[in-house]
Amino acid sequence: MNPPLRHSFFRMAGLACLLSIGACSGLLPKPAPAPSLHLLTVAAPAQPPPQRSAVASLRINPPQAAAGFDSRRIIYLREPHQLNYFARHEWADTPARMLAPLLLAALDAGGQFRVVLGAHSAGSAEFSLDTELIRLQQDFSQSPSQVRLTLRASLLDNATRRVLASREFDARVAAPSEDADGGVMAANRAVQQVLNEMVLTLAPARLALP
Q1: Is the pLDDT of residue 134 over 70?
Q2: Does residue 6 surpass a pLDDT of 90?
């Protein structure tokens, strides 16, 4: 094969190869879009915290989650006891981990304790709060759909490890729309309701704490 023909041959072969690669890449499935990420948030208190008269201090232990509710997936129900997950929507973190700073902020703003500490604080506290997320789900078996949040809380004496009080807090909030976005909005309202109730229930004066 003379040089001009050889050059033409390799040029055509290279072009055919490029066309083949382009055709194959066009047949590959496109990557799925990243899911939308959502936060559990509550509104900041509108008023400054009341004057603190209590001497008791409180540590917020890391919230735990029941089986099935310990992931970032947003859960909904269409049939009782059957958990489903939104494909294109997720929590930015697990709901239990997102609850930790919300619990701390709410109980601190309530002014019912002298000081409220996070789990990793080096300070000491007379009491600890254990919490477990029992459920956080959007129920489509009714109309409008409802988000249900159930949180179990236990107050412990750190000196004796005795449980001083234990209670389940439950909130049900209608979703403003029949989708994941509506469920997230309802979930945040449910969190606000539970936190408000918890602040009142765990007041040292109500529990006869020092």
Answers
A1: yes
A2: no
* 172 phi, psi to nearest 5 deg: -125, 125
SS3 41: coil
Residues in CB range of 3: below 8 A, 6 or more apart: none
Does the pLDDT at position 67 exceed 90?
Answer: yes
- Enter the DSSP assignment of 114: S
Q: Where are the beta strands (DSSP E) in 68-126?
A: 73-77, 83-91, 115-117
| Reported CATH class of domain 37-207 | alpha beta
Kindly state the tokens that stand for 138: 């959007």
Residue 52 has a pLDDT of 60
Annotated domain spans of the chain: 37-207
Residue of 99, 114, 103 whose CA lies nearest to 60: 103
- Separation between Cα atoms, residue 58 and residue 107, nearest integer Å: 9
What phi and psi, each to the nearest 5 degrees, are found at residue 194? -65, -45
3-state secondary structure string across 134-200? EEEEEECCCCCCEEEEEEEEEEEECCCCEEEEEEEEEEEEECCCCCHHHHHHHHHHHHHHHHHHHHH
